[in-house]
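User: Fold this, then the next.

Assistant: Folding the first:
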Amino acid sequence: MAKIIPFKAVRPTRDKVGLIASRSYESYSTKEKNARLRDNPFSFLHIVNPGYKYQKRITGERRYTLVRNRYREFKEDDVFIQDEMPCFYFYKIISKEGYESNGIIGGASTLDYQNNVIKKHEKTLERKEVIFEQYLKTVGFNAEPVLLTYPDNNQLKEIIDAVMLTRAEYEFTTTYRDTHYVWNVNDEKIIKNIESIFSEMNKLYIADGHHRSASSSLLANQLKNENPNHTGDEPYNFFMSYLIPESNLRIYEFNRLIRDLNGLSKEEFLISLDESFRIENRGSTYYKPSKKHHFSMYLDGEYYSLYLRKEEYEINNSLDILDVQILFETILKPILGIKNLRNNNRIEYPHGKTDLAYIKSMIDSNEFAVGFNLLPITTKELKDVADEGLTMPPKSTFIEPKLRSGITIYEF
């Protein structure tokens, strides 16, 4: 059964939350990053990118130590405060498109992660796990929640709805025109009720944050072994998570751009595709697939629809059904020679919120040779893969909501 706990978050003062909140560090272009670091002294980017202070790139353990030091400075300057009582943090995001996500930030158990109460659907890279575990141990905090999802629950919905009728602790709008609201809830009755409801759930699913949760699990094991008085209740036994109902989850596809045709001519490539697909030329008009197992391909100035010849493709499990897996097994691996999706610089993955014109422009400029558009994976498909203990190819899902870093910080 799932164990979710409240915690004493370190968080911005009310007047500075909009200045501190930042997107994930990797999501910024160099130009965007430099502009925010230059113009906003309160941006959380100053903590996670401490080399800016010295105008040089700093990596490894030295960087981690500087991150910890910048974080301490923000606390010393009273930019951050810490709640005196453990809280659950109710978090609402209303996107500029009008989508609404309502969830709870709390601590999720690393033991639940290890015992598969918290289900995974994506492979992680051991190298990245170890690097992030070292980072967490040095800095001593986590500022970006793992996104977990659970089946819609009327009891939780009633609790969340009631709290969200009250005045929010934070309300701010980002430059992306998304509006964020946060309530800190320390009412003992509400806390116990929430803990009890989650304790009756035998499954939670990681929607986004596989490496963060895996690294937190590694760190928990290490600190447990170093602590002769370990009880299991220490903060390092939990990782910060944002828990939302499945109905609030939005999944977009990652598309594929390939730099070359693996030595094939256009004609040879199309003939090879004909083995597994019925192909129709759609001309120069933008085209996206409308059904599962159908793909849109842009090649040499023209769009093609690819319809899977199902009699030529064997489905044995929930992974085989996924379009990302079909594309890999029928085109990327056998025809284009891309066998390792995790470490191949011939392929890139623009996500489904990117305009079709971007993929077209990258191919028309000859930077890439061919592009494929897919339909997004469904929540059910994600859960089926996780329940079978299988893992999707990398860049299978682009998932929202995306929380800002630095709004609630979990110290261990």
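Now the next one, as you asked:
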Amino acid sequence: MIRILFTLILTVLPLVLSAQEKYSLKSCLDYAVENNESLKKDRLSLETSIQSRREVVGALLPQINASVGMTRNIQKTTIAMPNFINSMMPESMMDPDADKYMTVTMGMDLNANWGANLSQQLLNMSLFNAVRITKIVGEMAELGLEISTEDVIAQTAGLYYGIQILSYAVEQFDESISLMDKTLEMIEVNRDVGLVRPIDAKQISVSRTNLETERAAMNNAIEFQKKLLKLQMGFPMEENIEIEPIDVGMLEDMVFSSRIGRYEVTEQLPYKLFQKQQNMLDLQYKSAKFETLPVVTLTANYSMNYMGDDFYRKSCHSFPVSMVTVNMRVPIFSGMSKNAKIKKAHIEQLKAEYDGRMLTQSLNMAYSNALMQLEQNRKAMLTQKENMGLAREVYEVTERNYNEGISSLADLINANSSLIKSKVNYINALNNCIKAHIDLKKADGTITDINH
């Protein structure tokens, strides 16, 4: 029996541990990058750009087509022509009553042919430029995917830390409720001996109920945040997800030990994407100008034709047809439409210069604001942490004094309220500091290192 129970425990224990697996930040980020629906769509867009480039490059390669056909002439073509046969006869043999025109049936019962056609672009600057455009489009799609990945990482990390901090807040509220329960026990003892008024116990009970209400709201917020996290990760909504408990010391070390690296706006992904967009506008300008240049095309054809009343008899005739053509198309006048297209492309280039300056200023401002916010929130968190320590010390002293009859119940209630408020202020400061940390890493382009 003992052996059976031991075997059962060994069988069930791994399943229980597996069910209780907790996701670390790295696990959540890896899962999100792999399964986020928006990123899946962006990967398909990247694949589309690759295929578009192949499509344009294919137009530069020789285009070869083959054909084969057979025709059964049910009613052959008949043509009318002058009756030259009668006029070619000797005068003595001419028929004076002969028709002026005669009809002739053309063709044979069966026609068949097979052949091949080759076409090659020799000079087409617009098409050559289109190849370069598709390359830029592919590079833009890659940068877009990187930007989307950074957004997903930042949002996932924010939700993850938000859940941890809310869970930490619930723990603090549990501790405060425990302190109130302890106070209520002391009040009950003192009330039995007539040292405490009934209204004092009611006041503590009201405060405790308020804390329980706030704790319930936080638990609901945690469940809502988990749903958002699962949505962001592409995690099945019907499955439960558990994350690792908060390590406050680790988070504090993270926000205080993070090094501010050298910031270069030209190294930021949005700026690199803008540069690619500028390159695209330059190529579109060239494309508009190339439309005014000649296009040279080489064409070659070869076919074999068969005609006869029966392909199995010697009456079947066959003959080949082949040719090579070099064609040049020269645009001469297009009603000024090409000129207008060139000017429009140049105007877009000028507009892009203003966009570039605005983007540079925006990225620099986002970085400086994130840096400033992090520094301010660091100071606020330190202040609130010290304040929470003082509030705890005051409560402990007030509790001892209350037990010794030195402090009043009102003093104890006020000390407890101050401790609760200091905890809430510290939690808010920690949350703001984590958000500022994420914003800074996103602004300086190091958000992908957040789990390292």
